[in-house]
Every structure is written in C-alpha cells, then in structure tokens.
Amino acid sequence: MIKKIIIAAVIILVIAGIITAAAVYMKKHKKDYIILDGPGMVRQPHDFIDYCSYSYGGGIEGESEHIELTRHSDGSYKYSYSYCPYNGGEETVIEKTFSDFEPVMDEIREICKRTGVLTWGELPKSELLLLDAPTATVFFRYFDNCFYSVNSDDILPEKGNGIFSDIYDYLKSLK
Q1: Residue 16 burial by CB count (10 A; 0-12/13-18/19+): exposed, middle or buried?
Q2: Which of 42, 67, 104, 107 makes a 20 to 30 Å CA pair with 76?
Q3: Rounded to an integer, what distance in angstroms lies between the CA atom of residue 153 and that of residue 135?
Q4: What is the C-alpha end-to-end distance of the chain, expressed in Å?
Q5: DSSP states of 81-107 as a string?
Q6: What angle is formed at CA 154 by the lines to CA 151 and CA 159, rounded to 5 degrees?
C-alpha cells in the first residue's frame, strides 16, 4: 500500500514539474507566440512600420505620382518622390535621406494607429468602375516582412475615410 502511495506521489510530482516547466517556458517566450488579431495586441503592427508608399496614376491623361519612405538597416530613412504631369512629360524626381534621429515615420504610424488600417484585412472592391480614371494605392511594410496595401477602388471602413489624403499630404510635406 505504501509503495502505491509513493508511486502516485512521484507521478504527481513529475506532472507538476512538467506543468511548471511549461509555464515558465511560455512566460519567458511569450512574445514568440503572440497572435496578431487586432486592436489591443501586445505588438501593434503600426509600431513596426518601416516602409510606406503612395502611388497615384493610371488615368487617361497619364499623370502619375509615386512617393515612398523606406527605413534602412542603419536606422536612416530614404525618401523618394517622382511626378510626371502627363504621358511623355518631364518627370520630376527628388531623393533625400533622413537620419535615424529624425522621427519621419512617426506621423505614418499615428495615421495607421488612428485608422486601424493594418487590421482591416481583405477589403471588398467597389462595384463602381470608372474606366480611364486614376487610382491611388497606399502600401505598408511592417514586422520586416508583412505587407498591406489599400487601393482607392476598395470599400473602406468608416475609420478609413481620409487615409489616402492623410498619407499623401504627410509624405509630400517631406519633399
């Protein structure tokens, strides 16, 4: 009888040790297993944006504009702006570099936080199709290898109203 009690106690201690070890391991590596599913996340995607671009074009007149802000591995930011007023027109190109001390991505992150754009998921397309009308696209990269884009042909959530103009106005102000 005492032998059975000792065996049961050993089994209980082994199981308790395994559970304790698993709990300690999970607590220590908590950030490795976070599922990113929306507001309230531990690691908000907007805090890790390292690339943003705005593109406009595709209209019948051929006007196009492309602006991008990219963070490099050394922490600096590369800014590129190009504009062409019509098909065959002279293209304006501007490139700049911002040091890692300049918080140039902070406004983009704030816009993304306010709108929740990186948590929208796949958006339905508008049924209204305007042939030869230009479109705008905003593109983000976050967590080094996650990408998300929004097109002016998408039906945006109510919080998304103004995202194209907000991103455009800010990126153009860096010019």
Answers
A1: exposed
A2: 42
A3: 7
A4: 84
A5: EEEESSTTPPPEEEEEEE-TTS-TTHH
A6: 95
